[in-house]
Amino acid sequence: MTMPSACNPKAGVVLLDTREHTPAHEHAVHLKLADGLGRLLGCQHVQPGQPPSAADGYYYLPTETLIGPRRYAALGIQGEQDLFGGLVSHPYMATKAISHPLPAGASFPPGWTDAFARQACDALLRGYTVFSKADARTAAQLLLLDGPLRVKPVLACAGRGQKVIVSADDLEPLLAGMDDQQLALWGLVLEEDLSDVQTFSVGQVRVAGLTCSYHGTQQLTHDHQGTEVYGGSDLVVVRGDYQALLQLPLEDHLRLAVNQAMAYEKAAEQHFPGFVASRRNYDIARGSNPSGHLCSGVLEQSWRLGGASSAELLALQAFADDSALQQVRASTHEVFGTPDLPADATLFYQGNDSELGQLSKFARIREHDHSE
């Protein structure tokens, strides 16, 4: 693998925050990620004094999946070499809304295609995406024939906002709180509810001529209110693409998860014009459906920086520093309270966040494996 060519260096890394509100702890992590990406690319993290343009030659770290290729071409974002994250052409493509087909006869937004779900069907759980309250009721009736279902707002993260319902009446209070225009733009997912769930991550990052791929697991923790939330990821990262990952001695369910992520990604590349991503992460759930059958499927994609990105960055840096290195174990940790940090921790945030309270976020690299 090579570092970026001298003929196409980046002038700097720019944090591109497209959100209405970014919590202080997340902003601190984003700044640290921008610094690390700058080291990989051989440039500095910069804060432009005026709106950037294509002529500036910057590399971007967006806080969300970017929507609208033409709009971001004006900043110089043409391909995966220009950003850490992803770019899609329509809002629904940026969320878990793509993970299911529509119920028959349902309304849909511009750019929608059921062809994605048809191609990726073997990698998906049973469920529907809807863009209206009437269609949500139809989808719920279909799914409730087999047992409880999970209602999943597509813009929520870390599992927040999801509700399990067992009857059509349970759906109504949830729909009452939803804005029709937002629903028509972004969508809503209704999906079979799994029990005894394990969630795996499969992903790939490509930066500065380096490609690394990984599988991993997520940990849950409790916030200061006692709510169960994302607590970190533990990743096995290899130098190379998904095929390099499949060369590992994987358990059957992990091999299935990698193959399902690959099928999901291939369908996206074929059916979403303008799709670009240098950071790709997929959550795959394994559990028992309401009929008692063990099943596995991709819950959602993340074509943007995410909870695992601090570990991804440390792995990329380790591969960049040592050309013989083929595999590392990298982990991220989000701990509420004031923990004693391990000696090998790289701290990304520690403080009393105004929204979440005392919180520490750090990443670690362990178990370096070299080629023979």
Tell me what the structure shows.
The protein is an alpha+beta fold and 372 residues long. It has three domains: 12-90, no CATH class; 95-124 and 126-193, Dna Ligase, domain 1; 196-370, D-amino Acid Aminotransferase, Chain A, domain 1 (2-Layer Sandwich). It has nine helices and 18 strands. The model is unreliable at 1-7 (pLDDT under 50).
Main-sheet strand order equals 15-14-10-11-12-16-18-17
Tally the helices: what do you get? 9
Give me the CATH fold name of the largest domain: D-amino Acid Aminotransferase, Chain A, domain 1
Mean pLDDT: 93
What is the succession of H and E elements?
EHEEEHEHEHEEHHEEEEHHEEEHEEE
Class derived from helix and strand content? alpha+beta
Query: Please, how many domains?
Result: 3
The stretches of 5 or more residues where confidence is low (pLDDT under 50) are: 1-7
Q: Based on DSSP secondary structure assignment, what is the total number of beta strands?
A: 18
- Rg, rounded, reads 21 Å
**Main beta-sheet annotation:** 8 strands, antiparallel
Q: Could you tell me the strand content as a percent range?
A: 25-35%
Second CATH tier, the architecture of the largest domain: 2-Layer Sandwich
Q: Helical proportion?
A: 25-40%
Give the termini separation: 17 Å
Shape, per Cα inertia axes:
globular
The CATH class name of the largest domain reads: Alpha Beta
